[in-house]
Every structure is written in C-alpha cells, then in structure tokens.
Amino acid sequence: MDFTFTEEQQAALEAAQAVFADVAPDGVASPSLTPGAVADDFDRTLWAKLAEADLLSLLLAPEYGGSGLDAIALCLVLRESAKVLARVPLLESSAAAYAVQTYGSDELKQRLLARAAQGEAVLTVAAHGRTGHDGAELAVTARPDGADWLLDGVQTAVAWAHTTDFTLVPATAPEGRTVLAVVPRAAPGLSLADQISTSGERLGELHLDSVRVPESDLITTEGAWDFLRDLLTTGTCALALGLGTRVLRMTSEYAGKREQFGHPIATFQAVAVQAADRYIDLRAMEATLWQAAWRLSTPDRTAPGDGLLPVAADIAVAKTWASDGVRRVVQTAQHLHGGFGADTDYPLHRYHAWAKHLELSLGPAAAHEEALGDVLAAHALG
Q1: 45 membership: H or E segment, kind and range
Q2: Rg (CA), the chain
Q3: What does the pLDDT read at residue 131?
Q4: CA 76/CA 92 separation, integer angstroms
Q5: At residue 376, what are phi and psi to the nearest 5 degrees?
Q6: Rounded distance between C-alpha atoms, residue 214 and residue 210, angstroms
Q7: Helix (H) / strand (E) containing 193
C-alpha cells in the first residue's frame, strides 16, 4: 500500500497552503463572548479566493470546470483549512456537488455544477436528521405528486443553511428507499430556525412542509446517500486531523517557552509523555483517514471482496479515531497551557470549541464503534 500523494494531489495541497496562509483563526468574535452566532455568513472573501485557486472544483470533471481529482485531494485541502479554522462550506459544497455529478440527472448537472465550480452556487447537506442520532434519511419523507415530489419533515444542525443556495436533503420514499432532493433555499414551504454550534457558527433547523421538488432535482439511485454520507464523514476526519495538528504544534511551541522552576515545561517528563501520547493519536488519525479516503477514491475497493470489508468499516474506524483523538488532543492542550487555554485573547479556546463540534458531527466515536460492530457481524473475516 502506497500513500504517496500524486503530483496533482500535491499541487492541490500547495494551492491550499497558499490560500490559507493569511487566514486568521480569530477573524470573528469569540464564541465564548458572543451570545448568538459569531457571524451571519461564511467568509465570502476566502470563498472567492478558493474559487480563483480552483479549489472548489477539485472533485468535478473538466467538462464542468473541475480538476477531476479524488477524495484524497479534497481531504488534503480540508486538513489545511482546519488548521486556520476556515469559515467556509468547503466540505459540504464539494461533497454535494460530487454527489450530483455522480448520481444526478443530466439536467441537474448542467444547471448546477459549472456554477458550483466557480463558487457562484453554494451547496450544503442536511446530514444530521431530526436528533443527530438516527439516520438523516428517516427525518424526511418524500412522496410523488404528479410529475413532482413533495417533502415533509425536519432536519437539524444543517451547516451554513441560511446562506447557501441549495441543500441536499436525504428522504425516505415509498417502499423504504432513500432519495436525495436538491432543494433551493427559497423553496415554498421551506423554513429555517437558528441553531448555534459549539464553535459559534450559525446552523439551521430545516423545516419542510410539502416542499415541491421537480423529478429532475431528485436523485433516486441506490447508494447515492450512503456515498455522500461516507464522503462527508471522511472529510470531517480530515478537518479533525488538521485541527489537531495545529493544536499540538501550538502546545509544543508554548511548552518550549513556558518555564517553571527555571526550566521549560517541555523538559518535564510528565509533559513530554502527554505530548507523545497525543502525537500517537494524530498518527493514528492520519493513517485511518488516508485508508478511508483511498477506499472512497478507488471504485473497485468500495465493495467487499478479496478479504476486504466494505468501505463503511474503514470510515467507521477513521471517525472513531478522529472523534476520540481530536478530543484528547485539545484536552491535553488545555491542560498544558494552563490558564492560557481559557484566555479569549488566545486562539486555543476557539480550537477547543471547533473540536467539540467535529467530534460529534456525523456521529461520535461510540456511534461509529457500533456501526463497525454491525459491519463485522455481517461480514465474516477469512
């Protein structure tokens, strides 16, 4: 197995590093000092720079203005974005556009994808369902009505829902099959209520009351929602890795300068052991992330065979490590920083708040451990 990045993937990484180099993680008000959302919109200036650098179209085919790359390239860019807490719907819009390209109708692709590649149409995904614990597809029903479909239900914690143009909504259709509907923000019957993330970002509670969707805007292909959810989960692992990497570096720099008893605290064995444990967490997060991203990027590897488990197993392992690992990294950082960890003039508290959001997003470690158990029970190892 070779996890060496290709020239194209490395070029995407370098472009991302250039774009994010000047982004400050404290560019908005502190979530600890703000009773509501830290901002009403995502960072439109940064979004325009990402479009100019062709980083919004990594997964799209050249015919839509894209680079035709894979989930590994996207995860490399997402990792860099999390190091500076970039406030953009890069994961959601990229994943949604890729799902439309892979499974959507020709009409839908022609209408959306070129605009998404240029950053003109911004997409998000209703991925958390009604409670955040049950499948998102169970929170909404879809029923045919003439040539259209009608959607009813509620989805919570929809990222960037108030400011994106379209939301991909998973729903349960008659006979229990899952469909994906592309719903414009201004659709009649759609309403949004404010929710606030631990990071201080504005989320949306999406209410659908007989929202009408043309059949051309409905994705009915079996496995489309599973693929989109897997891509979102893997991307979340990349965000957790980037955040954890930056936090451990902050901790190392602080411990090397902070002195107690005439010596830097980094020279104390108890401090060094804790930092080493967190380094091991990051390496495990990294290895499991690239395994999951590689499986998603290799079509003949997405199904079990030749002794392989389904890709869902690799994603469950990656998210388990991402959730537990990023939590341990920020907790240790807070401990080793002492009072600086809670100082709102110092950025660590922001990383802690974002880490909690990423830990729980698309399921905490326990949920993915349960999912992994189900996969192992259904597929005998031999």
Answers
A1: helix 44-52
A2: 21
A3: 81
A4: 15
A5: -65, -35
A6: 13
A7: strand 190-196
- Residue 1 has a pLDDT of 56
Q: Assign residue 175 a region: left if phi > 0, alpha if psi is -120 to 50, beta otherwise?
A: left
Contacts of 336 (CB under 8 A, 6+ apart): 251, 254, 255, 265, 271, 274, 275
Contacting residues for 285 by C-beta, under 8 A, at least 6 apart: 237, 240, 241, 244, 318, 321, 322, 325, 326
Contacts of 137 (CB under 8 A, 6+ apart): 129, 170, 171, 172, 178, 225
Maximum C-alpha span of the chain: 78
Per-residue pLDDT of 353-378, as tens digits, reads 999 999 999 999 999 999 999 999 99
DSSP state of 308: B
Residue 210's CB: how many other CB atoms inside 10 A? 11
Q: DSSP state, 173?
A: P
Alpha-carbon distance of 241 to 255, in angstroms, equals 21
Give me the pLDDT at residue 303, please.
56
What pLDDT sits at residue 213? 97
Separation of alpha carbons 64 and 61, rounded Å: 6
Is the distance from CB of 122 to CB of 159 less than 8 angstroms? no
- Burial pattern 264-273, b for ≥16 Cβ within 10 A else e, equals ebbeeeebee
Low-confidence residues of the chain: pLDDT under 50:
none
Question: At 285, phi and psi to the nearest 5?
Answer: -60, -40
Give CA separation, 6 vs 13, 73, 77, 159, in Å. Answer: 11, 9, 14, 31
